[in-house]
């Protein structure tokens, strides 16, 4: 189930229960965009059912102290990634810039293309950014010792477990994210606790890290991260309002896609690949000087995170993955704000704490570096 075949699945549900039962711990949970369009399948619902509100209610009933949304971290990722792309374009930085929110793909490049580790964006992935913000900004705001805070991520992904264990993704030896469980593991825990998702009311995420935009929702599908980045980069580069936020030319299910985005005077060439075979082809083109892209999104799993290795099994049925993808786009259309830089809680975070996107503190907390590693 791991797209790099480098990981076997380890169940971490017992660790979460243990932390939830410790009275001196403050346990914060976050859920990735792709979970809300797939979890329902484990409770007999149709593929593509959206259970965002029920999911927040279920996590609260499990006993988490605060229930948050990785989509907030995705909006912050766009603030950083769009700024990094503009910086690279304006200052002769390495191009193309590759999105970095898929850890399986980052690990793939470190091991298989070690001469190209300067190509991916230095942005940490959204759930790691969320963890770093929770253990600094949030901990300070609510008066909790960050060492007592436990951040649990519910992810569609087995590779995110290995990512959270990377030692560089920590502050003062305190991991940004402590435990990662998959969609399937969450389903098991809810069943163990006797929580029937279908019967729960819709509830909201907590605040101040629970508000998100449509741009963050589409992180869950192939093409979504780069589309979200374009919504923000367009407005920052042109200074004009982007009226039509859906970049249809970036969507679809073809394994490798190319598109051009017009930034009024600057044409950005965008590449998209999903599945590691397609990623390899794109990377070889870059290495051989055949690539003319400015930015590339790569997702290791076919379809992106909606088809992730930690999601309910779909047994190769592409229709299920497509229905989850359609649900992701419905989530986006249903949001009142669809551009990451317009998220009021994100704006507040930068104003009160981080300062400028891609600035000094943002670099310290939200960016990382990659290492050339032995070929496996
Ligand atoms: Fe994880 Fe797959 Fe999503 Fe990559 S594409 S982050 S491996 S679920």
TrEMBL record:
Q: Does the keyword Iron-sulfur apply?
A: yes
Query: Which branch of life, at top level?
Result: Bacteria
GO MF annotations, alphabetized: 4 iron, 4 sulfur cluster binding; ferredoxin hydrogenase activity; iron ion binding
- The keyword Nucleotide-binding is assigned to this record: no
Transmembrane regions: none
Print the keywords alphabetically.
Answer: 4Fe-4S, Iron, Iron-sulfur, Metal-binding, Repeat
Protein name according to UniProt: NAD(P)-dependent iron-only hydrogenase catalytic subunit
Q: Which organism is it from?
A: Natronincola peptidivorans
Portion held of the full protein: 206 to 581 of 581
């Amino acid at each position: 189930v791991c797209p790099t075949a480098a990981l076997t699945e380890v169940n971490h549900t017992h660790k979460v229960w243990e932390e939830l039962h410790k009275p001196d711990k403050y346990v914060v949970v976050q859920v990735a965009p792709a979970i809300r369009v797939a979890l329902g399948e484990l409770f007999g619902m149709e593929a593509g059912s959206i259970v965002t509100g029920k999911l927040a209610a279920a996590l609260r009933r499990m006993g988490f102290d605060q229930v948050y949304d990785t989509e907030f971290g995705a909006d912050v990722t766009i603030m950083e990634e769009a700024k990094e792309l503009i910086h690279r374009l304006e200052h002769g930085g390495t191009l193309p810039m590759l999105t970095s929110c898929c850890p399986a793909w980052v690990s793939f490049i470190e091991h298989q293309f070690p001469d190209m580790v300067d190509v991916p964006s230095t942005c940490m992935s959204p759930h790691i950014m969320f963890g770093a913000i929770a253990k600094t900004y949030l901990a300070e705001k609510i008066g909790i010792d960050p060492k007592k805070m436990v951040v649990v991520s519910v992810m569609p992904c087995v590779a995110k477990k290995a990512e959270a264990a990377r030692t560089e993704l920590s502050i003062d030896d305190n991991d940004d994210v402590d435990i990662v469980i998959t969609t399937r593991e969450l389903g098991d825990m809810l069943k163990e606790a006797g929580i029937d998702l279908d019967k729960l009311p819709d509830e909201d995420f907590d605040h101040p890290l629970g508000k998100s935009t449509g741009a963050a929702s589409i992180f869950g599908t192939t093409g979504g991260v780069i589309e979200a980045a374009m919504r923000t980069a367009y407005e920052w580069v042109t200074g004009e309002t982007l009226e039509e936020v859906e970049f249809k030319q970036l969507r679809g299910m073809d394994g490798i896609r190319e598109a051009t985005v017009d930034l009024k005077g600057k044409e950005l060439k965008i590449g998209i690949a999903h599945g590691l075979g397609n990623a390899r082809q794109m990377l070889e083109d870059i290495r051989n000087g055949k690539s003319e892209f400015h930015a590339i999104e790569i997702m290791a799993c076919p379809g992106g995170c909606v088809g992730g290795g930690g999601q309910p099994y779909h047994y190769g049925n592409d229709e299920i993955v497509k229905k989850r993808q359609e649900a992701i786009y419905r989530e986006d259309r249903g949001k009142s704000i669809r551009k990451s830089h317009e998220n009021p809680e994100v704006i507040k975070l930068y104003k009160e704490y981080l300062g400028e996107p891609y600035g000094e503190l943002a670099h310290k907390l939200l960016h990382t570096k990659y290492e050339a590693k032995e070929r496996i």
